[in-house]
Structure formats: C-alpha cells, structure tokens
Amino acid sequence: MATSSIAAPLPDAAPAGASQRPALSPEHQAIVKSTVPVLAEHGVAITSHFYKRLLNNHPELRNIFNSAHQSTGTQPAALAHAVLAYAAHIDDLGVLTSAVSRIGNKHASLGITPDQYPIVGENLLASIKEVLGDAVDQPVLDAWAAAYQQLADIFIDFELDLYQQSEQTSGGWTGWRKFRVARKVPESDEIISFYLEPADGGPLPHFKSGQYISIRVFVPERGVYQPRQYSLSDTDDGKHFRISVKREAAKGVAAAGLVSNVLHEKLPEGAELDVSNPYGDFTLDVEASGPVVLIAGGVGLTPLLSMLGTLVEHAPQRPVVFVHAVRNGKVQAMKGYLSRIIKDNPQVSRAIFYEYVDDSEQQGVDYDFEGRLEIQTIKDKVLLPDATYYLCGPIPFMQTQQKSLEALGVPPERIHSEVFGSGVL
C-alpha cells in the first residue's frame, strides 16, 4: 500500500548525539540480518512479552499506549512487523523512509520524548533474551543493541525536527494543550463532529489538509488516560479544529471504541480535553495542478473532506472526484455539505456507493451505485490524465482500491493513503 510520498528522507549522517555511541558495524548488520528468519517465526511472541514487561515495569506509559490495541494484539503485531522490516533492510534504510515518517509523526502527536527510548530498548533486548533463551548469544544481543540505538537516533532526530517546527509555527506547541468543546454536531447515526477551541483563547497554527491531531481523555473502564488520533475534517480557518468521530460499539474493557464512546456520551459542550499540535504526512499536494480523486470508505472521508474544502477554496481550476463507499444513508456523514459543494462547484463530481439501499433513498439523489465500491464500475470517471489519488478508510478497503487502481494502470507514486495503525517507540 502506498503512503504519502511527501515524507522527508532519512538522514545520511548520524543524528546529533549519535557519534558518542558505538556505531553499527558491518558485522552488526550481518548478525541482525541473519536473525530475520527467527523474527519472522517468533516476532509476535517477543513483542507481546515486551509490552507486558514494559508496562509492568513502567506503568506510567499506560497513558501513552492504545490499551485496546494491546488487548487485541494489534500493537504487538505492528511492532513485530516493524522490527522484522528493520532487520531485513538494515543495510538499506531508505526503504523505510515512509514508515519512519508515519511513525515519527504519530510519536510527535503523542509527545514521545528522547528519554523514553532507552527504556524501550532495555525492555526489548531483555524480551528477546527471555523469549528465545539460549538461542540468543552475546554477539546477537550486542548487534541488536547497536541496531536499536541507530533506529532510536533516527526517530529522535526526526521527531526533534517536528517539535522544532511546531514551536516555531505561530500558535504551535508541543505536548498537550487544553481545548474546549465549543460545539457538538451530529453528522449521521454514528458520527458527531466536535468543534474544538483553545481553552487559553490563544491562536491556532495553520495545518495541512489531511493532517490529524491526537486527543487524550480519561477512560474510567481502564483507569488511565487514552490518546487517539483523529483527522481534521474541516479546512484551516485559524479559529477552531474540527474532528468527526464515529462511535464504535465497545463491548467490554478489551474492545476498541472506548474513547469514541467517552467522546460521544461523556464530553458535553463546554468540556475540556487534551489536544496535540497537528501532525501527519498524508497531506494534499497544493502545488500540483492536475485532477484529484478522493476515495473514502466510511468515516475515512474525514481528511478527504478537508482536502475537498481546500481544493474548492484555493484551487477551483482542478477537477475533483469524490468517491465514498458507505453502508447506507443513515450512516453517511456530511451529505448536505457534499451536495452544496457539488452544486456550487461544477468542477467537482461524486460517486456514492451504498452497500444497502433503503426504500426511501433515491439513486442519483442520495447515492449513485448500490453495492460495494468497484473501481472498475467507475473507471471512466476516475481514470483522469495526471490525476492524484488519495485513499482513506479501513486497511482492507484501501488495499483493495490500491490494487484496483494499479491494475487499471495508475502509477503507485500517484496513490497516497492514510494508515492509522499502531505506532512503535
């Protein structure tokens, strides 16, 4: 799956401070690369053990990690995949540029600090030894210690740059800032938009369409603060941030949806919550001049609405196709907004897919196609010369659309997607 090609390249030289640490030698690289088969087989066992060990030894970090991802195994699996990819490409880190950008942006939105990396490294190395036992000798541990330090330095340097950019931007900040819920607006049976304004009354930084913020709320069922990332669903007006949150059906304390339920049920207008500076590298290329095709699945329309608003306000000469796949009209958000945009902007067209159609819904008015989104069905509408494609939605949805577009001849570098997965320290 393609990610944003606007990611910054990895540094050619070691980051600041790295010169005082042992360099990763060719011997270390060879040893790390030789562990790829072991990591492929035992990686999830190692990372599952690692998270239990880390959070038992440092319970204060429970306020950083997504507890639902811990319970379901999503985060250990994501870390195992990241470690495996790092080991496999230890001698060609340029391959990991987009992954470093995506994870580094998420870390910045969570306020990850350099002093947390040694804690992670200590527990990760200990977990490798404790899970694999005598199969791991000292040279392997030494090689992985050097490899982890190299990776930590890359992330620390990348995130430091993001923090500096935030602090140097008018209205920007690092860490958490108190915001007030100015308005709550229902958008569908499942989605509510939250209009957030700074509690201190200060200015807001400009953000790029497609970026997200982290929010942090207290979850009573877990007894901890929990952060989540939500795309900014409005254009940048310097007065408020808007997030549009789908309420997930949380079933038990181990389920996803705990935070969305807190937001929907327990955060009234006037309440305060913690908010990060905007981050993320899935952003609209405002310098391009060709057509734009926005393809959303469900609540994945949120960053694409921001892009749509920016395009009609600042680049009305660019043709735009807005494609949205949703279960039915009751859960389709922002129908009125999209209709007004299309009515007032002849360069914008749509293709709305309802998986299930109600008798009260009219084709051509409420929706355009019945069933799941098939790019082949609308290829004449979306295959435009020099078009750029932006995808957001569930990962299987994006993978399907990516493959379909490539099969129809769209170059992968013209396809960008947002991935809200588990970040790793």
TrEMBL record:
One of its GO terms (molecular function) is metal ion binding. Residues 174-285 form the FAD-binding FR-type domain. GO terms for biological process: cellular response to nitrosative stress; nitric oxide catabolic process; response to toxic substance. It catalyses: 2 nitric oxide + NADH + 2 O2 = 2 nitrate + NAD(+) + H(+); 2 nitric oxide + NADPH + 2 O2 = 2 nitrate + NADP(+) + H(+). Pfam families: Globin, NAD_binding_1. The keyword Amino-acid biosynthesis does not apply. In the presence of oxygen and NADH, it has NADH oxidase activity, which leads to the generation of superoxide and H(2)O(2). Under anaerobic conditions, it also exhibits nitric oxide reductase and FAD reductase activities. However, all these reactions are much lower than NOD activity. This is Flavohemoprotein. It comes from Capronia epimyces CBS 606.96. The lineage of its organism: Eukaryota, Fungi, Dikarya, Ascomycota, Pezizomycotina.
